[in-house]
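User: These chains co-purify. Model them together.
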Amino acid sequence: MKKIIFSFVVLGFILVSCNQEKKETTPTSVEPTVTTEPAPEVVTTSPLVTDVPVSSATTENTTGENADKVATAEKFSIQQIVNNYLSVKNALAKDNASGAAKASKTLYASFKATDANALVGKNKKTFVEIAEVAKEHAEHIGDNGNNIDHQREHFVMLSNDMNDLIKTFGSTAKLYQDFCPMYDNGKGAYWISESKEIKNPYYGASMSTCGSVKKTY
Amino acid sequence: MKRWLKRIGIILLIILVAIQFYQPDRNTETGLSASMKIESLYNVPTSVKNILQNSCYDCHSNNTNYPWYANLQPIRYFLDGHIREAKQELNFDEWGSYSGRMQVSKLDRITKQVENGEMPLASYTLINRDATLSDTEKKELINWINAIKLKDE
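Assistant: Joint model of the two components:
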């Protein structure tokens, strides 16, 4: 009888510790809306664009191309996303994994908060497609505050996504595309920076100046 | 002291028996979305198919090959948690539903995870010995991934 009880208790401990391991390494919830800080549910204008007079473009998008461009300029902005990305980049450059995780959760939230309904047609499709993937990377970076290597792996692809976003939607601030030729077994990796100075997010303090500016946005 | 232990033991036993009655739906195919499967969309050599089948599909597809102990709770509960999270990250049977960009991203992630040895999960290969990937198998899988990546890009 004692042996049976003892083995159940041991079984209980094993199973509980298995559950703990699972929670540490993987996202704990299925729905993305639950894992991060509450983001505004329905936002018709991007958070950064305030006090913009409502023009006719916002109510009638009868023609594709022109209304497309006007809608983009007036209501839609990726600036918040870009700023949050830069925070992640700066944290990684300082080898601050937990800071990067925190900034990445904010980035994730800003992706969710940016309303693609302000766009139409191809632009909308492009944004939605990029956001879908970038969000996953932001999520992973956010969930791995104790594993900077894993964060940096995702940061490579996140940076590529950001590059595509900026190419399509532009940036109000000046940005630089930097390239580190050594990272990822010599395959190299890009990142985007707000300053000309090279502060490598892939190597942090160990090789902070490795890399060069490839282009300006 | 002994009596308390005995009582706790009995309560645990009762709980253990009670949770056996909670048996949610299994992760098994309904056979509807065959066109979305990665094997329908690319040329997958048999050796790679075997790798995917033995080391990946139990968690990353719509069809899990449940072992006998999956009938037991709370083992089943933890298994289902793993499967749910795994499918959310990557589901080979829904590959066709991913955008081109997403596919490239996932292929990249698979490569890295396999190279690192993070996948298949150690807790999985501990029990499923044949799921462990040899160096040859890893290379084979990654070579195949690189080949289809070119197609996607």
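Chain B is about 60% helix and 0% strand.
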